[in-house]
Amino acid sequence: MPLNTQQHTILIAGCGDVGSTLGQRLASQGHKVIGLRRNINQLPQGIQGISVDLTQIDDLQAKLQGIHCDIVVYAAASPNFSPEGYQQTYVDGLNNLLRSLSTPPKHLLFVSSSGVYHQDDDSLVNENSPCLPRSFSGKIMCDAEKTALAAPYPTTVVRFTGIYGPGRNHLLKRVKRGDVAPATPRQFTNRIHRDDCAGVLAHLITKALGGEKLETIYLATDNTPATMYDVTHWMAQQLGIKVLSESATRRAGSKRCSNQRIKESGYVFQYPSYKEGYAALLKTDP
Ligand SMILES: NC(=O)c1ccc[n+]([C@@H]2O[C@H](COP(=O)([O-])OP(=O)(O)OC[C@H]3O[C@@H](n4cnc5c(N)ncnc54)[C@H](OP(=O)(O)O)[C@@H]3O)[C@@H](O)[C@H]2O)c1
User: Fold this and answer.
1) Domains and CATH numbers, the chain
2) Measured in angstroms, how far is the CA atom of residue 17 from the centroid of ligand 1?
3) Average pLDDT, stretch 234-263?
4) For a 10 Å CB count at each end of the chain, is N or C smaller?
5) 79 C-alpha vs ligand 1 centroid, how far in Å?
6) Is pLDDT at 249 greater than 90 in this prediction?
C-alpha cells in the first residue's frame, strides 16, 4: 500500500491481536501508531507503546496529556467472561479514555460485537435490526456502544462476529479430536478472520481521514453465515479426521449476520468465507 503523504496519529486503546495487526498495517502506511495496553512489551515493532490500565483514570490522564490523536480506536477486550470484567473493560475503560483525551479526535471507532443481537431464529440481522440482548455481555456491550456514540465527536461502532485467525484455532483443535457439531439443533455461526477485522478498521480509518462520512454502525462479518454442522464437517474433511463424537457448542443465538453495509462502503474481504480463512490457517498452522 502506498505511504501517506500526510502522517496522522492513531491511538489504539486495547492494542491486542486485532489492534496490533491494524497498527502494523497503519504504520506501514506511514502513520504514527500508539498502542495502549498494560503489557506493552507484547506490542510489535512500529507501534509506540503506552503502558497503562484503562481502569486507572489518573494514570491514563497523566500518560495521555499533551498527545493529540487524529483517530482513536477502542479495541480492549475483557480479560474474563464476567459482568465485572465487561463493565470495567467496555464501559468504565471507555469512559475513562474519553475523559482523558487532551484534544478531540477527528473520529472514534469503537469495536463492539454481534453479541448485542438477541435474535435466535436464524433470521438475517443488519445494523438496523433491534438489539435486545438478555445476556449480561450483550447488555453491557449495548451500554458501551451508547457510551461511545454519546462522545462529542464523530463516532462509529464496528460490530465483529466470531474472530478466528492465527493462534485462535479452538474450533480446529476440537475437530482434530474428532468432535463435530450435530445437524440439530441447527446453529448458524458468523465469523470474520482477524486480518479482515484489521482490514475493515483500516478501511474505515482511511475514509475518515479522507473526510468521508462514515455510518454510525457497521456489522463486520464475512460473506458466509454457515451452520456449525457445515463448518465442523468441512474441517473434518479437510483434515482427514474420522468423526468420533458430536456435541453442541455454547449457543450464542442462531442468526445470520449481513455484511451488506460494509461491502457497499467498498471493503473487499480477504477471506470471504470460513473455507478460505481456515484453509489459509491450515497451511500456516497445520
Ligand atoms: N473474540 C471474538 O470473537 C470477538 C468477537 C467480536 C468482537 N470482539 C472484540 O474485538 C476486540 C479486539 O479483540 P482482540 O481479539 O484483539 O482482543 P485481545 O487480543 O485480547 O486484545 C485486547 C487487548 O486489550 C488490552 N486490555 C484489556 N484490558 C485492559 C485494560 N484494563 N487496560 C488496558 N488495556 C487492556 C489487553 O492488553 P493488556 O492485557 O496488555 O492490557 C489486550 O491486548 C475486543 O473489543 C473484543 O471484545 C471479539
Assistant:
1) 9-166+191-223+252-270 (3.40.50.720)
2) 7
3) 91
4) C
5) 7
6) no
Residue (of 89, 274, 253) closest to 196 by Cα position: 274
Q: Which of 12, 5, 77 is nearest to 44 (CA)?
A: 12
pLDDT reading at 169 higher than 90: no
And the C-alpha cell for 37? 495496553
List pLDDT tens digits, range 37-73: 999 999 999 999 999 999 999 999 999 999 999 999 9
Around ligand 1, the residues with Cβ closer than 6 Å are: 14-19, 37-39, 53-55, 75-77, 79, 89, 93, 111, 113, 160, 162-163
pLDDT above 90 (res 252): no
